[in-house]
Amino acid sequence: GRVERVELRRIALPLVSPFRTSFGVERERDILLVRVDWRSTDGSSTEGWGECVALTEPTYSPEYVDGAQHVITEHLLGRLLTGDDLHASDVATRLATLHGHPMAKGALEMALLDAQLRAAGVSFGDHIGATATTIPSGVSVGIHDDVDDLLATVQRYVDDGYVRIKLKIEPGADIEHVAAVRELIGPDMPLQVDANTAYTRTDGRHLARLDEFDMLLIEQPLPEHDIIGHARLADEVETPICLDESLVSASGTADAIELGACEIANIKPGRVGGYLEAVRIHDLCVDRGVPVWCGGMLETGIGRAANAMLAALPGFTLPGDISASTRFYERDIVVDPITITDGHVTVPRSPGFGFEIDHAFLDSVTTSTATITR
Ligand code: OSB
Ligand code: MG
Questions:
Q1: One of 168, 182, 230, 327 is an active-site residue; which one?
Q2: Ligand 2 centre from 370 Cα, in Å?
């Protein structure tokens, strides 16, 4: 089959409340969506959608949404709009001589996968052998200046039914915040923290003070390239060290595990170049006995549905950051947004990534549309 037409759509979705991490504050999500029209060899045409998880600024990783759109338009698409036999599983290989840009590449692969799986009438979950029908839902809680405000926010999420709390932390907003939240939620509720690279190698003793709060993991305490630093921290701190930003490929993940830097893995498809590489990382982590969970990037219903299918693989033994769409957005661009019931998300089952676009609402939040035809 071949890609006949690609639409790059930018949308703006206001967040229900500001989301603060150690790298900045998000108030509105500026998202790039990719729509492909894929024509199979039998002549039928199917539309597929991908979501690029790049943020507005290069704060989480080097990618940012304008840059992603530029590299897709000027460098990536040309390599996909040629020939008559393009399959989603070829996208990474076709783009391999272009360095970096995993989020941009992943969005293209996702759109193609969605189209081809819809054409075949197969869900992505079935395609990869995912088995769970529901998955436990965790929530990522931004940094709050005021501990009482933080406790009020956490209490709301507990009341909503979330089964695991993840607190964003940074130096100055860590030990006291974790202690207060642990006290609020009690000893049995799963709790973890995410530093988004805010600490340094010399913070081992400080971070070891978190051990008494019996948390699942500490996510990405050190800068992304500091694998050895994370390995040393894993020796100094009892709480398992989990990597997010550091893991950008399957081979790099295998190396980080071998070096003792990655006791738990956060898998984010966009960060690693797409859902197919995400499955490979899942498989190698299962092979090495490393628990995995699915991270999030404030996705719309497109990415949320896809993440839910991925997280239904058997190696995803820890609750992920797949919360209800209403955690971030008043209204979603899909017809049947992700919700939580008894703390769980129902895994979509329909073909492709299992969402349906709410076209009228999508149009109303669209800020620009560009079309590329071959
Ligand atoms: O580090 O996991 C992260 C959001 C944007 C960028 C990085 C991260 C996050 C989150 C939110 O923690 C996860 C979500 O989508 O719920
Ligand atoms: Mg993280």
A1: 168
A2: 31
Digit-coded pLDDT (tens) for 90-142:
999 999 999 999 999 999 999 999 999 999 999 999 999 999 999 999 999 99
Residue closest to 174 by CA, chosen among 205, 139, 137, 136? 205
Q: What is the rounded distance in angstroms from the CA atom of residue 274 to the CA atom of residue 91? A: 10
In this structure, the residue with its CA closest to atom 4 of ligand 1 is 297
* Residue where the block lists tokens 């690029």: 52
Q: What number is the average pLDDT over the span 221-225?
A: 98
Domains of the chain (ranges, CATH numbers):
2-121+356-373 (3.30.390.10), 126-346 (3.20.20.120)
Share of the chain above pLDDT 70, in %: 100
268 is catalytic: yes
Active-site pick, 268, 271, 282, 327: 268
- Say if CB 90 and CB 107 are below 8 A apart: no
Burial (0-12, 13-18, 19+ Cβ within 10 Å), 160: middle
Ligand 1: lining residues by beta carbon, under 6 Å:
60, 140, 194, 196, 244, 295-298, 321, 323
ipTM: 0.99
Q: Is 105 a catalytic residue?
A: no
